[in-house]
Amino acid sequence: MKGVMEPTRSTAELVMAGSVLHAGRLITQIENGHDEARHTMRQLMRSCGKAQLIGVTGPPGSGKSTLVAALIRQLRRAQRTVGVVAVDPSSPFSGGALLGDRDRMLEAASGDRDVFIRSLASRGAAGGLAAAVNDAVDVMDAMGKDVVIIETVGVGQGEFDIARIAHTVVLVLVPGYGDALQVMKAGITEIADVIVVNKGDLPDARTALKELKGHGFTRRGPGAGEPWNVPVIQASALRQEGIADIVAAVNEHYMFTGSSGWRQAIERGRRRAQFADVASARLRAELLTAAGQALDDGQLADPCTAAEEFVRHVMAATAREPASGSGREMEKR
Amino acid sequence: MKGVMEPTRSTAELVMAGSVLHAGRLITQIENGHDEARHTMRQLMRSCGKAQLIGVTGPPGSGKSTLVAALIRQLRRAQRTVGVVAVDPSSPFSGGALLGDRDRMLEAASGDRDVFIRSLASRGAAGGLAAAVNDAVDVMDAMGKDVVIIETVGVGQGEFDIARIAHTVVLVLVPGYGDALQVMKAGITEIADVIVVNKGDLPDARTALKELKGHGFTRRGPGAGEPWNVPVIQASALRQEGIADIVAAVNEHYMFTGSSGWRQAIERGRRRAQFADVASARLRAELLTAAGQALDDGQLADPCTAAEEFVRHVMAATAREPASGSGREMEKR
């Protein structure tokens, strides 16, 4: 109410209450490596772990952003709230010219306060992109979004990173782009839980679909359970065709991982990777100062040999002594 | 001679003798993270440090590969041997479809055994791309190449990484691509020692050239010396125009860095970054196993907090004890 003083709420509380303004600011702080952001993230962690995480990847031009827009609409019809972390392979020259149709995604979300979309630039994220993506996903999870979609363009390492974050990875292909053989050769089907042949109205769609289905991809979680048969779905994101099928397949996979112990393995793997990403990025910064002088003075061997010696030394030193201060021991395998 | 047994030579010796076959194999081993490669690299280090290192970067479509081809021809005319490390922003989907005109570069080198060109894919390099680029540059240096050109496409972090490796960074722009303002905003001119306006025959070339020259970019090494005035050069790589000017400007900058103490600072910075890159990448791998169980068991706080505690602990532990075995102390700042 106007004129009534509200009690001061922390950033974490405001984010957990769903404030888009404060969530957006927090993610900017994360990108810039602000210390305060880490403090807020610690407070948010207890509200994390509820969202369903969907990764969407595919080559440039496969229509991922249009597909994500269509997925948002479909999920909203089922009353589910949605967060999107869009990883932007930005060029320092163009500021992100590789992306064309992100506008469509924004359009799908316009005016809907239950959809929160945020881009992360592939450069500039202090502490590494994978760490920033993990944090942004946690922010949206803590905001209470039912589903968080992570979109990444198939250039570089990003598609392998989201495979470590998402519960379900949707691989978007287009007919005529490449045959099943090419996709298999690239090793990319290893991370796909659901394959979508987008632009299914194109002439080669039927061939592509037949080839991919014919191959019969399977994925297997840890343990000896049944394998997951990767569905191959024909869609047209632009015409909103096949979208319900994709959401159904994604949900089926999510249920499958939950009942087979696979989901816990994914979540553990994500937290392990997050730890290793953050620790190694911070160590890199510390090492640049700590070891620099010794290298310059020729007290160390060549940089790579010195690095190997240093790693051996660190692992030995930390195995000998427990981590002090925290009262928790760092265990060696 | 046929039939005569040669004494067995080590890979390092064969590379130092200029063997393209063995240098190529070694770089493949480096990409794959082979232990043997590290052994060979250690032997090669004593032959490193002689080559002139030129970085070439710019937005996709600026004609970098064509320009590199023209530079190779120009350098060969002056009897200088050339190595090229081309960083390929490969997509796992396409296997490198972002690149069009690398063929021109290969054409310039065809049949000339004093030119060695090698692509590195941006994914798959175990231990990080920057580390692999540094190693590949060292291999070409040890082969005895007078000049090593590092070419990278302006997508992501690569152009900032080569600025840490090369003695001289050549920034390639095209008229009409973007005005000086846009380039300045992107912060990219901070790393440019020589700016080339390629495709100088295009209609907007004169405007672009005037704008860039009008700005008067300068670069400054460490210390209080004179600043370097960044030359802006009009060229047409396709027509082989302006290429001699570029080589002259690059050599002038190389001389400048040598007389001002700047070059030693660049080389020290490169070795420091190499140490930090290799150490943090190896630590990341070690941490995934060492800390994984403790994270899973809930003995550690949330991953990011745990990572920060771990880093503090490592830095404290390594500061207390000298690195054992090597007889060299790891100094703290």
Shape of chain A: globular
Oligomer: homodimer
Query: Could you tell me the radius of gyration of chain A in angstroms?
Result: 22 Å
Number of helices of chain A: 13
- Summarize model confidence as the mean pLDDT of chain A: 80
The percentage of residues in β strands of chain A lies in 5-15%
Query: Which residues of chain A form runs of ≥5 with pLDDT under 50?
Result: 94-100, 322-333
The chain pair with the largest interface is: A-B, 92 and 91 residues
Overall SS class of chain A: alpha/beta
Number of strands of chain A: 9
User: How is the main sheet of chain A built?
Assistant: 7 strands, parallel
Helix-strand sequence of chain A: HHHEHEHEHEHEHEHEEEHHHH
Distance between the termini of chain A: 56 Å
Helix content of chain A: 40-55%
Strand order of the main beta sheet of chain A, please? 3-2-4-1-5-6-9
Please provide a written account of the structure.
The structure is a homodimer of 333-residue chains. Chain A has helices spanning 11-16, 20-31, 35-44, 64-77, 102-109, 129-142, 158-163, 180-185, 205-215, 243-260, 262-290, 292-296, 303-320; strands at residues 52-58, 82-88, 115-121, 147-153, 168-173, 194-197, 218-219, 228-229, 232-234. With 333 residues, chain A is α/β, with parallel strands linked by helices. In chain A, strands 3-2-4-1-5-6-9 form a 7-stranded parallel sheet, with helices on both faces. In chain A, strands 7-8 form a two-stranded antiparallel ribbon. Chain A is globular and about 65 Å long. The interface between A and B is large, with 92 and 91 residues.
